[in-house]
Each structure stands twice: as structure tokens, then as C-alpha cells.
Amino acid sequence: MSDIQIWSLVFVGVSFAVYLYIAWRSRVKETAGFYVAGQGVPAVANGAAVAADWMSAASFISMAGLIAFMGSDGSVYLMGWTGGYVLLALLLAPYLRKWGKFTVPEFVGDRYSEYVRLIAAVAAIIVSFTYVVGQMRGGGIVFSRFLDLSIEGGVVVAAIVIFMYAVLGGMKGITWTQVAQYTVMIVAYLIPAWTIAQKMTGFPVPQVTFGQILAELDALSEQFGLAAYTEAFAARPQIDVFLVTMSLMIGTAGLPHVIVRFYTTKSVRGARFSAFWALVFIGLLYTTAPAVGAFTKLNLMESVNGVAVDALPAWVGNWQATELVTVADGATTITTLSNDPTSGADLIVNNDILVLATPEIAGLPAPIVGLVAAGGLAAAMSTAAGLLLVISSSVSHDLYFRVVKKEASESQRLLVGRIAMGLAVVVAIYGGINPPAYVAQVVAFAFGLAASTFFPILVLGIFWKRANAVGAASGMIVGLVFTATYMIYTLEVFGTPANEHVWGISPEGIGTIGALVNLIVTVVVSKLTRPPSEHVQEMVEEIRYPARRVAARVSETE
Amino acid sequence: MVDDRPATAPDPGSPPGANGWRQEYWKKNLRLMVVLLSIWFVVSFVCGILLIEQLNKIVIAGFPLGLWFAQQGAIYTFIILILVYTLRMDRLDDEYGVAERDEEGKRL
């Protein structure tokens, strides 16, 4: 066993033990605790939990690598995955918290009608499943590199641990475990980033200093036959950059597992502050990621530039074992580099390994490499747990009890919730072992679907009293079908052939159009049919004000 | 102590009708929202995407300005926007007496 593997085992083992201990301490016996942690989580802690829930394997493992290879156009992930929180904070979180029940489909059910709730529950399950598959894959990659397991074995180990603490603790356990996972994740991300910034620029704040190396990076990229790093729209046309950014933003604001985290706060004000803290915690990683991308790309290119194949640095060999780094047959020295296996470049590096390999590429000591492995697993597992909870609550709460058995007891509800979670884990393991596409693509799928189903009808439900059930149902179905169809048309999914993009719009960006279609359909159909009942309009009116008005305040303003 | 809709204590300066304060509160909320969302759109979509090439001609500390907006500036602005929103809404809630409080009158 190498030093790197020993240190990985130590960090992964210790952090897993902590997560399980926390889950055990905060295990729950009632549904309110299971679904919304008893609605008593302080805003700062909830913010950290949102951040961990939210920042997945894609953020931690894939994103910096994607930015490194996409250069300027990689900004779609940075703006898209943070800008959504502005929408969430201003348009959704406070109102959904005021209304205050367990799940997103439940709000949809109360606001529109029971059958719209069913559509929403099915959509929530589809979105969460798509997303959880990406997480399982991410966990598998980490294990296969650092713990000498096959990717399949890694997926299974990660799934068992997630299942144990998610089932025991429900939302309450998940909340405090996620706070711990955020801590592990951010420490694991920042320490190598600071060290590299210090090494390369003499100042340990990468956000400030990575500008210094951009000119060098531009020059070296061109030498390797790539576009200049800072050149805009080299990887995607402008219209697509716009649409992808928007799609990721409204997808973020429409993801059920993120929204539900705002139900766990004490108050409406707590929900607003949770959104603030969440973005502070997320921003810490997201402003660091482009620096990590730039530094690692430069390091990577410098370490292999013109080097003979048999004299390549050790990390190349380490990662070749996972088949995520490949040296072209017949290449003698490295003069071209790409992340695209079909490009014919001398060295092919998969996006997904860059963050995990960063400390190795920069020649940092083994404990730091181990720490990053623990961070990557924390990211994948915290998100997977949040997603499993949404699947479990959608199945047990929104489908089983609203449709099959309305008079079920608390303990029956918990049991069905836990069984649903167990089944979800089994399906997720299968998906993680046979992923339909690579991590970031699978995640983009989930976002496009969330954007085109939930976001428009949630916002209209709060801001437009006239929106009705027929409108919302048609909007959601048309949005979902339209978006999924385009994605399947343009991507190679489950063996279907990939077709040309229409007007340069990628499958990642189609969610924006899908959401727009949903919005238009909902408005038009609502207008053509009867307005919602007095009761529903009153409910919409109520959620706009955090609490009942206190008369005492009136006299003060006089 | 709870006064929701009766016309016994109308707000000074509120439009006629028992629920005038409600409309006023909601309007102020919407106005704040529109202002903040406009800034949200400008820093991300306008500076970071639509005008990125023009802004990139300005280079500060090695950063082409458009790229800086897209990879750093937009995120910092988003954080500030949410903070401004939460603080302004706290004030608005107090102004209209709709903040959630426990039995001792402390904020929740």
C-alpha cells in the first residue's frame, strides 16, 4: 500500500466514523423529524447543510476540471450554480417556508390540486434519481483510485454507508451530518488550493492571485493546440453559454432536495438567512474553483510539455490504472493534450480526475491527497443522502399515503419511507455502475428537468393567484416532455444516437427553453380555464406575509 | 394583539380598504425584488456573457475584466444581493409588524 492510500484510508475512515456517530446521536422516531428535522435548525447550520447538500460530486470533483478544459466558457457552472440562490432566496424559500409542510409536491398539491401533486411527485423522483446516479459514480471514482477497489465496489461501499445514516437519522441526522461534511469538504478543497497558490504566486489566496498566471496559460494552451484559456465562446456559442447559465440557475432554484432544506428552519426569516449563509459557504468553494482549474491546468501542461512518454511524472501512471488518463499509442513525447478521447491528442485527461489529482500534480504531500479523497466522498455522499430523502418522501408521503393508504400511522409512514429509500439505493447502485453518461452530463440532465418542471409553476403559484391546476399540470407535462425529448435527441443515452444541436443549443441549455415553454403553457391554459377557488387564493395571499400582523407595531408608526 | 383585517386600526397613509397595508407591504417587497434581480441579471448575463468580449479588453491584475465578472465578481455580487434582501425584508417586516416573534417578542 502506498502512502497515499494509507492516508486516504485514515481520512476517509475517520470522517465516515464521525458521520455515522452523528447520525446515531440524532436518530428520529417521528415523521416531522424524518422529513424536516422538526423545523428547528439554526440558520447558519442550515446554510452549511444546504451547501453540503447542494455541492455534489459534480461541484467538488468535476467542476474545476471542466473549467480547466473549457477555459472562459467554464464560467457557466460558476454563475449558474451560484446565481440560482438569488432566485431561490427572493422568489421561493421564504414563501415555501411560510406555507411550511414536508415536501415540494405537497405544496403543489395544496396550491393546485391532488393530481398535480402526483405529477410533481413523479417529476421529483425522476429528477432526484437522475442526480443521485451522478453522485454514486463520483463516489465510485474516488474509491477506485484511492482505495484500490473497482469502481463497482466503490459504488456499493458508498451506497451502504449513505443508506445506513440516511435511514437511521432522516432529515435530522442528515442535517448535522451535512454540517460535518461541509467542513470536511471545504477544508479538503481549500488546503491544496492555498498551498498551490502560495507555491506558484507567493500569496496564499487563490481568488486574488490566479490572474497572474492567465497570460502564461493563454500562451501555453495555444502551444498545445488548444484555444486561449481566457478567450470567450471557444467551447460553446454565445447563445448556448447564455442558455446553459440560465438553465443551471433556474434548475438550482427548482431542485426539490435543495428547496426542502429551507423547510427545516425555525422561521421565514431563518429561511432567508439560510439562503444567505448557504451562498457564503458555497461561494467559498466556487470562487476557489476557477483558480484551482487555472493552476492545475498550468501545472499539468508544464509537467508534461515535451516530456518523453517513459519519463512522465508519477501521477500519470497512477491514474492510467483507472483508465481516466491515457497516453496515445505510438506517442513518444507529449506535445498535444485534450480531455476528448476522440481528439487524437498525445495525452487524454478526463475532466473528472483533475481536482482529485491536483495535489499529486502539484507534488503536495500524501496526507493532503488523502484529505481530498475524504472531501470528494463527503461531497458525493451528502448530496446523495439529501436526494434519497426526497425520493423516499415523494414515494411514501406523496404517492403512498395520499393515494394508497390515507389513514396510515406514524410508524407505518416511517417504515414505508425507509423501505422506499432502500429500494432507491439499490436502483442508484445499478445506475452508478452503469451510468447513462459522465458525471457532469448526468447532473446537467437533472437540472434541465428541474428547471423545466418545477421552477415556473412554483414561482407562478406564489406570485400569480390566477394560476390554476389545469394550467400547472399542462405546463409541467409539456415542459418535462419537451426538455427530455431534446436531451435524448442530442445525447447518446442508453445507446440512442446523438443528433446535431439545433441552433447551437446544447442539451445542458435546453432547460431554459423548457422552462419558458412551461411558463407560457401554464399562463395560457390558466387564462382559458376557471380561476382557482377563493380558498386557494387566500392561501396564496397568506404565504406572502411571514406572520400575522401585530397591532402594537401600528401605534408606533403613528 | 393580533390584527389581521379589521378596519379598526387602519395604517396612516395607507390606501382605503381594510387590507391596504397588505398591498403596500407586497408592493414594497416586489419593488425590492425587481431592483435586486435587475442587478443579478446585469452582473451575470450582461457583464459575464453578453459584453464579456468588450470587457475583456480591460485587464486588471492579470484578469480580463469580463472573465473576472464571470468567474469571481458575479458570485460576490450574488452574496451581497441576498444579504441586502434579508436585511431589507427584516426592516419591512418590522415596519408592518409581520415579523415572527416568540412569546417574549424576540425574533425567531
Automatic annotation (TrEMBL), chain A:
Q: Where in the cell is it found?
A: Membrane
Q: Name one GO biological process term.
A: carboxylic acid transport
Q: What is its main location?
A: membrane
Q: Name one Pfam family in it.
A: SSF
Name the Gene Ontology molecular function terms of this record. transmembrane transporter activity
Q: Establish whether keyword Cell membrane is in the entry.
A: yes
Q: Which residues cross the membrane?
A: 6-24, 76-95, 115-134, 146-167, 179-197, 241-263, 275-295, 368-393, 414-433, 439-463, 470-489, 509-529
Looking at the record's lineage, which domain of life comes first? Bacteria
The UniProt similarity line reads: Belongs to the sodium:solute symporter (SSF) (TC 2.A.21) family.
Q: What is this protein called?
A: Cation/acetate symporter ActP
Species = Isoptericola dokdonensis DS-3
TrEMBL record, chain B:
Which positions fall inside the Sodium symporter small subunit domain?
22-98
Task: Enumerate the transmembrane spans.
Answer: 32-52, 58-85
| InterPro entries for the chain | Na_symporter_ssu (IPR019886)
Its keywords, alphabetically, are:
Membrane, Transmembrane, Transmembrane helix
What Pfam families does the annotation carry? DUF4212
Residue segments, region Disordered: 1-20
Q: Does the keyword Membrane apply?
A: yes
What name does UniProt use for this protein?
A: Sodium symporter small subunit domain-containing protein
